[in-house]
Amino acid sequence: MSTRILLLCTAFAAAVAGTGCTKQPLDHISQDESRIYITNFDSTANFKSYNTYTISDSVAVISDQSHKMESGSTDQAYLAAVKKYMQQQGYTYVARTANPDLAVNVNRIYNTTSGVISYGDYWDYYGGYWDPFYYGYGGYGYGIPYYGYSVYSITEGAMSVDLLDLKNAAAKKEINIIWTGLIRGSGIFNTSVADAQVQALFTQSPYLTNK
Questions:
Q1: DSSP state letters, 146-195
Q2: Under 8 Å between Cβ of 117 and 154
Q3: What is the pLDDT of residues 121-150, one digit of tens each?
Q4: Start and end of every DUF4136 domain (predicted)?
Q5: Torsion over CA of 164, 168, 170 and 174, rounded to 10 degrees?
Q6: Please, which pLDDT band fits residue 196 given cuts at 50, 70 and 90?
Q7: Residues 195 and 77: beta-carbon distance below 8 Å
Q8: Taking the model in full, what pTM does it have?
Q9: Are 134 and 72 a contacting pair, CB within 8 Å?
Q10: Which domains does the chain possess?
């Protein structure tokens, strides 16, 4: 697997450098400057071999308290942004009954415990809220990637986007997750910023194009 992380380091470094002048240097970092974008992908995946995709009309809300599906205005803004940038990369949206090559799952993640968010814990419940039967592969499991996120400490939560390989699911007897992107930072659960956040993930992942 390969990993790329985009950090807005300039402002952070400047703030840290000023610790002798202020007790709370990070208070002066804007919401934009606080955001971190992490993308992982399966280096064996040939993204040009996929043409169609499907996406749910809801977002999975994942926390240590519950797991549910929601479709609020911010959720819809993220779903619309994913569709927009998938289309720009050359993929065609189809219904999940039309034998799509890929599936896209969007997740809103909350962590109310102390410490860091564990991506390993996130995968533990994956089949519970994204049943393979939904994509027509009942009885299959997921090919869970071995990488994990340890994304500092989370106070507001995170958004993630997962790309699933349906095209090869029958042959491999599992649905492999071939790309995932994580957005963490202040103000990300806001309709007005959804497009820019998803764009950042796709910009950081130029290999996703099938053109």
A1: S---EEEE-SS-EEEEEEEE-TTHHHHTEEEEEEEEEEESTT-S-GGGHH
A2: yes
A3: 566 667 777 888 888 887 887 776 655 555
A4: 39-207
A5: -40
A6: very high
A7: yes
A8: 0.71
A9: no
A10: 2-6+36-208 (3.30.160.670)
* Cβ pair 209, 177 in contact under 8 A: no
Rounded-to-10 torsion of CA 137, 140, 143, 144: 100
- Burial of 153: CB neighbours in 10 Å, binned 0-12, 13-18, 19+: exposed
Find residue 4's DSSP bridge partners.
Answer: 39
Please give the pLDDT value at position 149: 53
Token duo for residue 33? 């400057």
Q: Which two tokens stand for residue 5?
A: 């992380």
Residue 78 confidence class, pLDDT cut points 50, 70, 90: very high
What the block records as the tokens of 32 is: 């934009």
pLDDT at 64: 73
For the cut 70, the answer to whether the pLDDT of residue 87 exceeds it is: yes
- HSE-up of 81 (CA within 13 Å, CB side)? 25
User: Amino acid identity, residue 48?
Assistant: K
